[in-house]
Please model this.
Amino acid sequence: MKPVDHLITLQPPYYAVVFTSIRREGDNIDYSEMADRMRALASEQPGFLGFESARQDIGISISYWESLDDIRAWKENVSHRQAQERADDWYRSYRVRICRVEREYGSSITS
Amino acid sequence: MKPVDHLITLQPPYYAVVFTSIRREGDNIDYSEMADRMRALASEQPGFLGFESARQDIGISISYWESLDDIRAWKENVSHRQAQERADDWYRSYRVRICRVEREYGSSITS
Model:
């Protein structure tokens, strides 16, 4: 993956799915393959606006969407459902938050 | 900091401030002192519900709040404002998203 050199910038209102997680111990050899595949697949879905993530003690992944219907459709996607069914193989704990983004602002140094 | 062994679990509706950022190059020696101090101070504010963060290529920090008024009050906090004024010393780029959390679910393996 190439280094991230910019943050996603969007125009509210839109929606965000905030996925927090704690990984299980051990290798979970097919985890990163699945994570990459799901990220690629999500980006092809209608209404997909972007994806950002970081993992340290916990993982935080955020996908951005145009509407709640788009989020629902992605949740029901067959390949995504297969991945969801294996969640307990990969995560000791996870939370999903469906959020409406009401305001957004920021700053960027152009060097 | 002790290892995180659980994720924050809350009852919607409530609000989240999602702060994404890319750090500047270099040491920024007072950055982590400031970050720790702001996190401690936030947790003392009315309406504060929790804080979660991770940094890899980008940083994602989320604070959870009872209401938009609580978020506004924290934004106007004098020490917090002093930190905000120095944001460009620490971050090459940052975004702030004010979100209403509408739904939340998850799973936890109790071992």
Summary: The longest strand of chain B covers residues 91-108. The CA atoms of residues 54 and 65 of chain B lie 19 Å apart. Chain B touches chain A through 47 residues (CB under 8 Å).
